[in-house]
């Protein structure tokens, strides 16, 4: 399908979704929101895709919600009761069969996508842009990337579940620091906090991210990555015993899978794997 505010490309088993409003630092709009969800769903259902990269065009990843939209809300005379309807109309997430209810909210559906999602943070990620980045499975940052929660400086609160995702990545104290102050941090500090997994020089960034994605796409069983992703996100709501029980059940299923047979065969035969994904 044609997209207005994103780019969508599939090559070498990788789907790349690029937020494409570079003159606005890819500020988030309703159109972009809808197109990202459609592209994520398309990538999930495409058997030719094994990994998804989400990135931004130009100098920014996503500078947050488009300020024109926020200005419209700020100038409104609506009472809180009216804003509840706005939330119902605009902040309801896509329904996904079998997904936990927590992963069917607005933006929280990323963990329910059954393929790895790499957030390639090429530039500024602020406010809602940071929320989106945190829902990716893995985050790599360019050394030119900047991060800010932004909300407290707009008279807003910790939006869209960032009060849940951020402390799990950087700890409660660091999360409150970033949320209270809304200060701007660079990629090096983001790495020290655990907000991102790697920092890569800007001139090598796109290539290194793609190199990593290719390794997953070609060397890892797509069945394994699918099950592992579901295990990890469900385990956030489980105790250890339940997580072990699930692992034991999935292990038995793995032994009967085609990918397990191929995993053993390619190792013994000393060749590249050819996982069918089943």
Strand content: 15-25%
Q: What is the global morphology?
A: globular
* CATH architectural group of the largest domain: Alpha-Beta Complex
Poorly predicted ranges: none
Overall mean pLDDT stands at 91
CATH topology of the largest domain: 2-enoyl-CoA Hydratase, Chain A, domain 1
**Strand arrangement, major sheet:** 1-2-3-5-7-10
Give the biggest beta sheet.
Answer: 6 strands, mixed
* Tally of alpha and pi helices: 11
* The top level CATH class name of the largest domain: Alpha Beta
Look at the structure and name the CATH superfamily of the largest domain.
2-enoyl-CoA Hydratase, Chain A, domain 1
Overall helicity:
40-55%
C-alpha Rg, in Å? Answer: 20 Å
Element-by-element helix/strand order:
EEHEEHHEEHEEHHEHEHHHH
Structural notes for this entry:
The protein has a six-stranded mixed sheet, sandwiched between helices. Strands 4-6-8-9 form a four-stranded mixed sheet. With 278 residues, the chain is α/β, with parallel strands linked by helices. It is built from eleven helices and ten strands. It has helices at 30-45, 67-74, 80-90, 128-135, 162-170, 172-181, 187-193, 205-219, 222-235, 240-255, 258-268; strands at residues 6-11, 14-19, 51-56, 60-62, 117-121, 124-126, 138-142, 146-148, 185-186, 198-200. Helices cover 45% and strands 15% of the residues. The mean pLDDT is 91.
Supply the key terms.
single chain, about 280 residues, 2-enoyl-CoA Hydratase, Chain A, domain 1, 2 domains, 4-stranded mixed β-sheet, 10 strands, about 45% helix
